Amino acid sequence: MNANRATSATKRTDDDRPLRCLVTGATGYLGGRLVPELLEAGYGVRCLARSPGKLRDHPWVGRVEVVGGDVTDAESVGAAMEGVDVAYYLVHALGTGRGFEETDRRAARIFGERARAAGVRRIVYLGGLTPAGVPEHELSPHLRSRAEVGRVLLASGVPTAVLRAAVIIGSGSASFEMLRHLTERLPVMVTPSWVRTRIQPIAVRDVLRLLVGCAGLPDEVNRTFDIGGPDVVTYEEMMRRYAAVAELPKRVIVPVPPLTPRLSSLWVGLVTPVPGALARPLVESLKHEVVCGERDIVRYVPDPPEGPVGLDRAIALALRRVRDADVATRWSSASTPRAPSDPLPTDPDWAGGSLYSDHRERTVAASPRALWRVVEAIGGENGWYSAPLAWSLRGWLDRLVGGVGLRRGRRDATRLRIGDSLDFWRVEEIEPGRLLRLRAEMRLPGLAWLEMTVGRDGEGRTVYRQRALFHPHGLAGHAYWWGVAPFHAAVFGGMARNIADAAESVTAEAIGPEPVRSTTR
């Protein structure tokens, strides 16, 4: 990969400056990984984000320019395109509602038009690999829209490279998490018949290598490229090979007659952390055989000396990242479709409505640093420090109505950054050592936040403060709050008490037992 980076880095503008790249989707799974690869290749990078604050804690943010805007807003896209040589289109409107295809179409047109007006030299788009010989009207809405976006960009008048990939294997990708949890949790599987469909997976590091390489394509190149790894397998074989690499007992897989995409996605949603809304397009893309029809991309971006990454190595690399808690981005890095995005209100009469709250405060016999370590490590494998059965039940209920549930877990076991998903919450704000604010992404008749702060009182003692806030939507929202209010003492009160106890326990372990005094003289 370094050799290809060196080749890409030699591509410069006519005035001998490094190419400037615009990356959309930098808060998402692939965009968040592409940015540091482009920087390492020697390119200048500008990121367009609807919520620029979500990039604040990324290790590379100080080396890029971040601008606010949305791909459906022509003015902000035009401003972001100024002085850009290569524009990466890594966003889609999947899951935003029934009109997502029209939203995708409109956004792609705006992107192409503004790129042409700004004199951008190339657009690079990552789409989905569509099955050969299948009429487009028979494709899933997801694949159909991805194909249409590619056509719109190719017709924009700006030279465009459309990379078409099937299943991407990498730590934190939705496809890998689906594969991992299906295989690990079900030693005996009764599966839909699509597990016998042939697919051509590709390692995420090869996807990134090709995306970077496309920045240096000749100006006359305006076409699609199929990209895939060296292995063509069925999903069933992929699960068996995952089990072998992960050193799991041999899996028994029994396909059953076809299930509808909805039933299949519900099944995937119950077994894996991937919610049904995201599982459905993944499942629908597996109904047809998706195998590369050509490998023309290697004429422009050659394979590395060791060749592209094979399936077994891709699985091993992803597993190592997961086990080492070294996952840079996850499928849940992007906001969950239909999840609330309103910031925490500062006005008690925000929007002219009610704002319910539950306040808890405890003095803690531990240092603020010890308390903060407990707060920042909350969720995931560590749980929520109260009523685990109640939290689990709430997670299952959320999944049953199409929500994300509790099983998204954490990107990192001990550290959080703004924008991270945390079970069915998302980190809205974090001030290390002082404040953690989470916004609920579970299905609710309203908007909810959970805020935890660490500080000292007037006597210098460590204090833990906790606020749960809920802004109801309609009568259902008010009924929901008062329906769960009787359980607040157990859930929120127990949470505050157990977090304080955990911090005090950590402090006691660090100090160690008091020394035993000798009774002899």
UniProtKB/TrEMBL annotation:
Listed CDD domains: SDR_a2
Domain NAD(P)-binding span(s) in chain numbering: 25-131
Protein name stated in the entry: SDR family oxidoreductase
An example molecular function term from Gene Ontology annotations: protein-containing complex binding
A Pfam cross-reference name: NAD_binding_10
Species annotation: Streptomyces phaeolivaceus
Lineage: Bacteria, Bacillati, Actinomycetota, Actinomycetes, Kitasatosporales
